[in-house]
Design brief:
Layout (H helix, E strand, L loop, with lengths): L15 H10 L8 E7 L14 E6 L6 E6 L3 E6 L4 E5 L14 E6 L6 E6 L3 E6 L4 E5 L14 E6 L6 E7 L2 E6 L4 E5 L14 E6 L6 E6 L3 E6 L4 E5 L14 E6 L6 E6 L3 E6 L4 E5 L14 E6 L6 E6 L3 E6 L4 E5 L14 E6 L6 E6 L8 E7 L1
Antiparallel strand pairs: 1-2, 1-28, 3-4, 4-5, 5-6, 7-8, 8-9, 9-10, 11-12, 12-13, 13-14, 15-16, 16-17, 17-18, 19-20, 20-21, 21-22, 23-24, 24-25, 25-26, 27-28
Length: 388
């Protein structure tokens, strides 16, 4: 067998019979490569398809196979390619595309010429990004201090947040922002009316402020008004708006500082939407809690739950992404599933019918990435990468 290199003719997933035949013949066919797909709301061109038509099933975005990661905001999206370049498209009324103007674009446009972009997160009308050198950058609408630039000014192109080179990852939703540093500390800034910044108060902050003093934060997910995070020890924590039970604390009390959700230590991946949260444990089980009027918890009901409930009985889930009121998830077998609100076809099922339990999107078994925005009601856009 040849050495496997991603994004070359030797990369991809080989089935055993195909590998055996190729080896016997002394040749290797071109394996599956990753393509970018989008579906859902598209009035501002946020799907990147060169038009403003909404679609209820996945549509391929161009023909490139070099997309690495995508983050959807409200009516726009930003993405990074494998070569480290940054791209954006969709609504641009306050410079959220980072292109130095306020022109909407319905297909991807490169942001500058740099090739060292690494991580991306989108809020309502702004973006955060970390470069490979560990610097943090922000652009778009600066309301409530969401850009972390010590002001509330709108910026139409990327601006560096401070001078540190120790930023590792970012998360954003609505007008609040979060970042984790390489030392495991958690930082937040922006809108804080519901205590979602986790600093023990409800005061907006226009520059990064550390959340507590701990150095073992692993991942953070920003919901519309609340926040969930997991530590390196596998514990789950939540804070912010909780009138709908989205914190998973078995009550509806809002908190302005992190509170542990139960006592388990096997939480692995998390996501959050409007008033609800989803998570995958290390055993591959999927869990959900909070607001459920559209069936977005996937529990085959529209009943709200203020503590984690398992979605079905399978232990084969690998990736979860929750939007404002719908969710998309990938299983270990590469299949893609969706449920919840579907007004704009964001479930990818070819219709606009809400679903209260997971349903597979198409028949492909080569989905590797999915992201849906959680910053605007009834405008969900979804992006997926499929190796077919």
């Amino acid at each position: 067998m040849p050495t496997v290199y991603p994004y070359t003719q030797y990369g991809g997933i080989w089935k055993l019979n195909a590998a055996s035949a190729a080896q016997g013949a002394g040749t290797w066919a071109t394996p599956p490569v990753p393509y970018l797909y989008s579906w859902g709301f598209n009035s501002y061109g946020g799907l990147g398809l060169g038009n403003t038509t909404s679609y209820s099933s996945p549509k391929q975005v161009g023909s490139l196979t070099t997309w690495l990661t995508i983050s959807a905001g409200a009516y726009f999206a930003a993405a990074i390619k494998t070569d480290g370049t940054l791209w954006s498209w969709g609504r641009n009324n306050v410079g959220q595309l980072g292109l130095g103007n306020t022109t909407n674009y319905s297909s991807p446009k490169q942001v500058g010429a740099l090739t060292n972009w690494s991580k991306i997160a989108s809020g309502f009308n702004f973006c955060l990004s970390v470069k490979t050198d560990g610097t943090l950058w922000a652009w778009g609408q600066g309301s409530y201090g969401s850009l972390g630039l010590n002001s509330t000014t709108t910026n139409y192109s990327p601006n560096q947040v401070g001078s540190l080179t120790t930023w590792l990852n970012v998360a954003a939703s609505n007008y609040q922002s979060f970042a984790i540093k390489t030392d495991g500390t958690l930082w937040s800034w922006g809108y804080n009316y519901n205590g979602q910044l986790g600093n023990g108060n409800t005061t907006n902050t226009s520059s990064p402020k550390q959340v507590g003093a701990l150095t073992n934060w692993a991942t953070v997910a920003a919901g519309f008004k609340h926040t969930v995070a997991a530590k390196t020890d596998g514990t789950l924590w939540a804070w912010g708006f909780n009138a709908l039970g989205g914190l998973g604390l078995s009550n509806t009390t809002s908190y302005s500082s992190p509170k542990q959700v139960g006592v388990l230590t096997n939480w692995l991946q998390i996501s959050a939407g409007y008033g609800y949260s989803t998570a995958i444990k290390s055993d591959g089980t999927l869990w959900a809690w909070g607001y459920n009027v559209y069936g977005q918890l996937g529990l085959n009901t529209t009943t709200y739950y203020s503590s984690p409930n398992q979605v079905g009985s399978l232990a084969t889930w690998s990736t979860i992404s929750s939007g404002y009121s719908c969710s998309q998830a990938i299983k270990n077998d590469g299949t893609l599933w969706s449920w919840g609100h579907n007004q704009n076809g964001q479930l990818g099922q070819g219709n606009t019918t809400n679903l209260s339990s997971p349903k597979q999107i198409g028949s492909s078994t080569f989905w590797t990435f999915v992201n849906t925005n959680n910053s605007a009601n009834n405008s969900n856009m979804v992006f997926g990468i499929n190796k077919y």
